Amino acid sequence: MKTDNKITYGFKTEIKQLLNIMIHSLYSNKEIFLRELISNASDAIDKLRFNNISNPDLYEKIDKPHIRISVNDKKKKLKIIDNGIGMTKEEVINNLGTIAKSGTKEFIKSLKEKKNIKNNMIGKFGVGFYSSFMVANKVSVITKSALKNTDAVLWSSNGDGKYSIENINKKNNGTEIILYLRSKENNFLNKDIIKNIVNKYSNHISIPIEIETKDKNNNIKKWNKINKTKALWLVNKSEIDKKKYIDFYKNTFNQINDPLIWSHNFVEGKYEYINLIYIPSKISEQIWNRNYKGELKLYIQRVFIMEDIKKFLPYYLRFVKGIIDSKDLPLNISRELLQNNNIIRNIKLSLTKRIIKMIIKLSKDKDKFKIFWKEFGLILKEGVVEDLDNKDYIIDLLRFSSSFNDDSTKVISLKKYISRMKPNQNKIYYITADSFKSAKNSPHLDFFYKEKIEVLLLFDRIDEWVINNIIEFQGNKFQSISTSDNSVDEIIKKDKKSNIKNNNDFTVFLNRIKNILKDKIKEVKLSYNMVDNIPVILKTDKNDISTQMFKLLTSVGQKAPKVKYILEINPNNKLIKKIINIKDDIIFKDWVYLLLNQSLLIEQGFLNNPNKFIKIINKLLI
Ligand code: ADP
Ligand code: MG
User: Fold this and answer.
1) Residue to substitute in 11, 15, 39, 43 for testing ligand 1 pocket (most ligand atoms within 8 angstroms of CB)
2) Alpha carbons 571 and 264: distance in angstroms, whole number
3) How far apart are CA 50 and CA 304, in angstroms?
4) Which residue has a Cα nearest atom 15 of ligand 1?
5) Quick check: 559 and 502 in contact, CB under 8 A?
6) In the chain, where does the domain assigned CATH 3.30.565.10 lie?
């Protein structure tokens, strides 16, 4: 049947590397090659079903979709056959050898870091087809596209850096993957083993997976279905136990860990649809990619249509995984139409509400919520800005680190904070910094430690932005403790002025400093809210940019106005009490320079001229 039109090609470099890894892999879980090939077959059938609806004239009709597994004991061959969309010659070349998908590179990179293939990596990075080389020393693909009037092709490779392509005859559309098993891998010819693997990984596939029984002459007698074809989300809730939900999740979304929580609903009323939504217990790294599509699969009457989370949920919920199956959407819906569709809008609103309810439920379980917040808190916070309708619910869910705790775990809710406010306190105090450590050790905190007033420690990049969008919680405004503010006076209610004997002295003192620092500083003033051993501290004015915001903006290459500081002086500090008496203007100037620069160093973490700073310290020490 073959014609003599065989052409040999070389694999793209990354694929060569990938094949080399697969062939020499010591991965103990080689059986997953079958899961990957079945999942490709199932995708191919989904694609054809979809095209039958959207481009009915161009494609052959799919009659009885099936995935078949055929075993040849003598020749040690294993075939995986489908009647899906197949591939044209160009598609074969592109999909199985030429174009290295972005996943290939990431897979190889991740392997270099992790040294060995881990459970879910192969499916995750979309390199499934090549996993067949873990068990086979030669793989052939016979495929015919369901596009009308296309020729079939045979693709073949020993995994050695080359592959060949030739025309071949094949009657029906679809793909046959033929694995020539290595002698060590002959157990994959055993039908019971095959059935077990299908059971373990592919039971959720809603297309029949069949294996043949043969007669004495080795002819195929009939095909027997080995999977339970009903898609799990269509099954009555009372018939599904916990394990089934978890297995479905792990297999469908390539997860190793159990989900934190799930919810399965048959929505009735104006629009009917089913949803099965999971909240994972581990974030997927791809979530930070710019165009992350998420893993929420849209089915219309059991036909897989697409995966694009932005269409069905606000983007800050992109960490959920699940299925939506709608009866009302037209099967041939285009992506553009999806955007302005009432049904979609309705699904989006109610699904968002449902997921927020799930998270609220999760928040009642301290341990699970700790995991949730660690993994997804950063993303959920985006919702404060993105989702005005549900903003209040999200604000209730926020968790923070606190100056009252010694570790950085974010467990304090705003409600909790409010419940432990001091009498007369009506602001929520916070500090923003680059890290937990620098927040926790900030000199701004010393006074609050002393007075036992709780301060929220914010050190995620997004925090300043989030807080600016909250403004207040249950009537309590947010107040940065690095911003000049005297609300603390209300709480501690001390009569400070009586502490200071000679207020006039200070007026002269402050004016002397102001004269020296004229252009460098916005204001100089006394502060009574400082611990004794800190002489000076820098604050920013209410409406001015903060140090942290300045750092954030400049770190992403944006222009930011220079920070204008207020120098606050502690009249009760010993050093200040000494400096105030210095008459010599030159020495006084050196001290002022020292005070300003030590506070700048603490506030910014660096000095523009450290050399001068040290020289002046040394001069004053003599
Ligand atoms: P992924 O499935 O993540 O895209 P794979 O390595 O498993 O990655 O498959 C590569 C590509 O080869 C698929 O995207 C698909 O285009 C094509 N392909 C693989 N198997 C089949 C098949 N049985 N029928 C049609 N196309 C297939
Ligand atoms: Mg695949």
Assistant:
1) 43
2) 64
3) 7
4) 95
5) no
6) 2-225
Ligand 1 contact, 227 CB (< 6 A): no
Q: How far is the CA of 124 from the centre of ligand 2 (A)?
A: 9
Q: What integer pLDDT is reported at residue 120 of this predicted model?
A: 62
236 CB-side CA count, 13 A: 2
> Does residue 104's CB lie within 6 angstroms of at least one atom of ligand 1?
no
Q: Is the CB of 126 under 6 A from ligand 1?
A: yes
Mean pLDDT score of the chain:
90
Distance CA(124)–CA(66), nearest Å, equals: 24
Nearest CA to ligand 1 atom 10: 95
Predicted local confidence at residue 89, as pLDDT:
95
Find the DSSP H helices in 89-224.
Answer: 89-93, 102-114, 121-124, 191-201
Q: Is residue 458 within 8 Å of residue 514, measured between CB atoms?
A: no
What's 327's DSSP letter?
Answer: S
Location of each CATH 3.30.230.80 domain in the chain: 232-369
Looking at residue 279, what is its pLDDT? Answer: 98
Closest ligand to residue 125's CA: 1
Residue 98 in contact with ligand 1 by CB distance below 6 A: no
What CATH number is given for 2-225 in this structure? Answer: 3.30.565.10
Q: Which ligand is nearest to the CA of 99?
A: 1
Structure confidence at residue 617 as a pLDDT band (50, 70, 90):
very high
Q: Write out pLDDT tens, residues 572-583.
A: 999 999 999 999
Q: Give CATH for domain 398-492.
A: 3.40.50.11260
Asked whether the beta carbons of 171 and 137 are under 8 A apart, the reply is no
CA-proximal residue: ligand 1, atom 9 (nearest): 129
Exposed e or buried b for every residue in 44-79, given b needs 16+ CB within 10 A?
Answer: bbbbbbbbbbeeeeebbebeebbbbbbbeeeebbbb
DSSP state of 412: B
**85 pocket-lining for ligand 1 (C-beta < 6 Å):** yes
Taking residues 312-325, report their average pLDDT.
Answer: 96
At 176, the pLDDT band (50, 70, 90 cuts) reads: very high
Task: Give ion ligand 2 contacts, CB < 5 A.
Answer: 40, 128
| Interatomic CA distance for residues 67 and 223, integer angstroms | 10
User: pLDDT tens digit string along 505-519?
Assistant: 789 999 999 999 988
- The pair of structure tokens assigned to 554 is 């400049």
Report CA(128)–ligand 1 centroid distance (Å). Answer: 8
Where do the CATH 3.40.50.11260 domains begin and end in the chain?
A: 398-492
Indicate whether 248 pLDDT > 80.
yes
**Single-letter amino acid code for the residue at 15:** I
Q: Is residue 3 scored above 60 in pLDDT?
A: no
Nearest to 394 by CA among 301, 317, 280: 317
In which residue ranges of the chain is CATH 1.20.120.790 found?
Answer: 505-621
Number of helices (H), then strands (E), belonging to the chain: the values are 22, 22
What is the DSSP secondary structure assignment for residue 159, as one 8-state letter? S
Q: What is the CATH number of domain 505-621?
A: 1.20.120.790
Does domain 232-369 fall under CATH 3.30.230.80? My reply is yes
Q: Ligand 1 pocket test: pick from 81, 88, 95 the residue with the most ligand atoms within 8 Å of its Cβ.
A: 95
Considering the entire predicted model, what is its pTM?
0.74
